[in-house]
Write a structure and sequence with these properties.
It is built from seven helices and six strands. The strands form two sheets. Strands 3-2-1-4 form a four-stranded mixed sheet, with no helix packed on it. Strands 5-6 form a two-stranded parallel ribbon. The longest helix is centred in the middle third of the chain and has 12 residues. A hairpin with a 6-residue loop joins strand 1 and strand 2.
Length: 192
Protein backbone atom coordinates (compact mmCIF):
# COMPACT_ATOMS: atom_id res chain seq x y z
CA UNK A 1 0.00 0.00 0.00
CA UNK A 2 1.31 3.46 -0.84
CA UNK A 3 0.64 6.62 1.08
CA UNK A 4 0.66 10.08 -0.47
CA UNK A 5 2.54 12.64 1.60
CA UNK A 6 3.15 16.34 1.08
CA UNK A 7 5.01 19.35 2.41
CA UNK A 8 5.32 23.02 1.60
CA UNK A 9 8.71 24.68 1.17
CA UNK A 10 9.49 28.39 0.81
CA UNK A 11 11.55 29.45 -2.21
CA UNK A 12 12.34 32.50 -4.35
CA UNK A 13 9.48 31.28 -6.60
CA UNK A 14 6.98 31.34 -3.77
CA UNK A 15 5.74 28.46 -1.66
CA UNK A 16 6.44 25.13 -3.39
CA UNK A 17 4.15 22.15 -2.84
CA UNK A 18 6.06 18.84 -2.73
CA UNK A 19 4.04 15.65 -3.13
CA UNK A 20 5.41 12.14 -2.87
CA UNK A 21 4.45 8.56 -2.35
CA UNK A 22 5.83 6.07 0.06
CA UNK A 23 5.21 2.42 0.78
CA UNK A 24 3.63 2.17 4.22
CA UNK A 25 5.27 -0.25 6.62
CA UNK A 26 2.56 -1.49 8.94
CA UNK A 27 4.47 -4.58 10.03
CA UNK A 28 6.28 -5.35 13.27
CA UNK A 29 9.12 -2.99 14.02
CA UNK A 30 7.66 -0.05 12.12
CA UNK A 31 8.66 3.16 13.83
CA UNK A 32 5.52 5.11 12.99
CA UNK A 33 5.71 8.12 10.70
CA UNK A 34 9.52 8.01 10.41
CA UNK A 35 9.43 4.49 8.98
CA UNK A 36 6.55 5.39 6.66
CA UNK A 37 8.33 8.30 5.01
CA UNK A 38 11.79 6.75 4.73
CA UNK A 39 11.25 5.71 1.12
CA UNK A 40 9.44 8.75 -0.32
CA UNK A 41 9.49 9.19 -4.10
CA UNK A 42 8.73 12.64 -5.46
CA UNK A 43 5.52 12.78 -7.54
CA UNK A 44 5.09 16.51 -7.96
CA UNK A 45 6.69 19.87 -7.31
CA UNK A 46 4.32 22.74 -8.02
CA UNK A 47 3.95 26.40 -7.16
CA UNK A 48 1.16 28.88 -6.46
CA UNK A 49 -0.85 29.83 -9.52
CA UNK A 50 0.76 27.13 -11.62
CA UNK A 51 -1.25 26.02 -14.63
CA UNK A 52 -2.30 22.44 -13.85
CA UNK A 53 -0.60 22.55 -10.44
CA UNK A 54 -1.23 19.90 -7.84
CA UNK A 55 -3.75 20.55 -5.06
CA UNK A 56 -3.63 18.73 -1.72
CA UNK A 57 -6.29 16.02 -1.56
CA UNK A 58 -8.21 14.48 1.34
CA UNK A 59 -6.33 11.51 2.75
CA UNK A 60 -2.87 12.89 2.00
CA UNK A 61 -0.59 13.16 5.03
CA UNK A 62 1.40 16.30 5.84
CA UNK A 63 4.95 14.99 6.31
CA UNK A 64 7.63 17.68 6.01
CA UNK A 65 10.25 15.28 7.41
CA UNK A 66 9.80 13.11 4.31
CA UNK A 67 11.05 15.95 2.12
CA UNK A 68 14.00 17.17 4.19
CA UNK A 69 16.55 16.09 1.57
CA UNK A 70 14.53 17.55 -1.32
CA UNK A 71 14.20 20.82 0.61
CA UNK A 72 17.95 20.85 1.27
CA UNK A 73 18.72 20.32 -2.42
CA UNK A 74 16.25 23.02 -3.48
CA UNK A 75 17.81 25.49 -1.03
CA UNK A 76 21.30 24.70 -2.40
CA UNK A 77 20.05 25.12 -5.99
CA UNK A 78 18.41 28.50 -5.31
CA UNK A 79 21.56 29.68 -3.48
CA UNK A 80 23.70 28.73 -6.49
CA UNK A 81 25.56 25.98 -4.58
CA UNK A 82 24.14 23.06 -6.57
CA UNK A 83 23.55 22.42 -10.26
CA UNK A 84 21.59 19.17 -10.13
CA UNK A 85 19.06 17.21 -8.12
CA UNK A 86 19.47 13.67 -6.88
CA UNK A 87 16.09 12.67 -5.47
CA UNK A 88 14.06 9.51 -6.04
CA UNK A 89 11.19 10.14 -8.45
CA UNK A 90 7.89 8.27 -8.59
CA UNK A 91 7.63 5.93 -11.55
CA UNK A 92 4.75 5.36 -13.90
CA UNK A 93 3.53 8.93 -14.24
CA UNK A 94 2.78 10.31 -17.68
CA UNK A 95 2.34 8.64 -21.04
CA UNK A 96 5.19 6.86 -22.81
CA UNK A 97 5.66 9.91 -25.07
CA UNK A 98 5.68 12.30 -22.10
CA UNK A 99 8.28 10.16 -20.33
CA UNK A 100 10.52 10.31 -23.45
CA UNK A 101 10.21 14.10 -23.54
CA UNK A 102 10.83 14.36 -19.79
CA UNK A 103 13.96 12.20 -20.14
CA UNK A 104 15.31 14.77 -22.62
CA UNK A 105 14.54 17.57 -20.13
CA UNK A 106 16.54 15.73 -17.47
CA UNK A 107 19.55 15.62 -19.82
CA UNK A 108 19.71 19.39 -20.46
CA UNK A 109 22.77 20.66 -18.59
CA UNK A 110 22.53 23.35 -15.92
CA UNK A 111 22.89 26.82 -17.43
CA UNK A 112 22.04 25.60 -20.94
CA UNK A 113 18.93 26.07 -23.02
CA UNK A 114 17.49 24.17 -25.97
CA UNK A 115 14.57 24.92 -28.26
CA UNK A 116 11.28 23.06 -28.41
CA UNK A 117 12.29 21.96 -31.93
CA UNK A 118 15.54 20.49 -30.63
CA UNK A 119 13.64 18.50 -27.99
CA UNK A 120 11.19 17.32 -30.68
CA UNK A 121 14.05 16.13 -32.88
CA UNK A 122 15.59 14.21 -29.98
CA UNK A 123 12.34 12.30 -29.38
CA UNK A 124 11.69 11.75 -33.08
CA UNK A 125 8.75 14.15 -33.26
CA UNK A 126 10.04 17.01 -35.39
CA UNK A 127 7.81 19.14 -37.63
CA UNK A 128 4.22 19.04 -36.42
CA UNK A 129 5.40 17.08 -33.36
CA UNK A 130 6.82 20.25 -31.82
CA UNK A 131 3.35 21.15 -30.53
CA UNK A 132 2.99 17.70 -28.90
CA UNK A 133 6.41 18.17 -27.30
CA UNK A 134 5.30 21.56 -25.94
CA UNK A 135 2.21 19.93 -24.46
CA UNK A 136 4.29 17.16 -22.85
CA UNK A 137 6.68 19.73 -21.40
CA UNK A 138 3.70 21.70 -20.05
CA UNK A 139 2.49 18.57 -18.22
CA UNK A 140 5.81 18.04 -16.43
CA UNK A 141 4.77 17.53 -12.79
CA UNK A 142 8.26 18.22 -11.42
CA UNK A 143 9.01 21.88 -12.06
CA UNK A 144 12.58 22.92 -11.20
CA UNK A 145 13.72 19.33 -10.50
CA UNK A 146 12.97 18.25 -14.07
CA UNK A 147 14.21 21.43 -15.77
CA UNK A 148 11.53 22.32 -18.32
CA UNK A 149 12.47 25.97 -17.76
CA UNK A 150 15.56 25.31 -19.92
CA UNK A 151 13.43 24.94 -23.07
CA UNK A 152 12.96 28.18 -25.01
CA UNK A 153 11.80 29.33 -28.43
CA UNK A 154 14.05 28.80 -31.46
CA UNK A 155 14.52 32.58 -31.59
CA UNK A 156 15.75 32.65 -27.98
CA UNK A 157 12.49 34.02 -26.62
CA UNK A 158 10.99 32.68 -23.43
CA UNK A 159 7.92 30.67 -24.30
CA UNK A 160 5.39 28.91 -22.07
CA UNK A 161 6.07 27.80 -18.53
CA UNK A 162 3.38 26.36 -16.27
CA UNK A 163 4.73 28.45 -13.38
CA UNK A 164 4.69 31.65 -15.44
CA UNK A 165 7.30 33.35 -17.60
CA UNK A 166 8.62 35.52 -14.73
CA UNK A 167 9.52 32.37 -12.79
CA UNK A 168 11.10 30.82 -15.89
CA UNK A 169 13.18 33.97 -16.28
CA UNK A 170 14.19 33.82 -12.61
CA UNK A 171 15.27 30.17 -12.89
CA UNK A 172 17.30 30.81 -16.05
CA UNK A 173 18.81 33.84 -14.33
CA UNK A 174 19.91 31.72 -11.36
CA UNK A 175 21.59 29.34 -13.78
CA UNK A 176 23.10 32.05 -15.97
CA UNK A 177 21.28 30.57 -18.97
CA UNK A 178 19.83 33.90 -20.10
CA UNK A 179 23.21 35.61 -20.26
CA UNK A 180 24.85 32.73 -22.17
CA UNK A 181 21.97 32.66 -24.67
CA UNK A 182 22.26 36.44 -25.21
CA UNK A 183 25.98 36.08 -25.93
CA UNK A 184 25.28 33.35 -28.49
CA UNK A 185 22.59 35.47 -30.15
CA UNK A 186 24.70 38.64 -30.04
CA UNK A 187 22.25 40.48 -27.76
CA UNK A 188 23.61 43.01 -25.29
CA UNK A 189 22.07 44.94 -22.46
CA UNK A 190 19.09 44.26 -20.17
CA UNK A 191 17.34 41.10 -19.13
CA UNK A 192 15.14 41.28 -22.28
Amino acid sequence: MTTTVYARVESPLGELLLVGETAADDGPGAAGAAAEVAGVRLLSLSMPGQKGGTVVQDGWRHAPEAFAEVARQLEAYFAGRSTRFDVPLAEGTGTEFQRRVWAVLESIPYGSTVSYGEVAALVGASGAGVRAVGTAIGRNPLLVVRPCHRVIGADGALRGYAGGLERKKLLLGIEGGLERKKLLLGIEGGAG
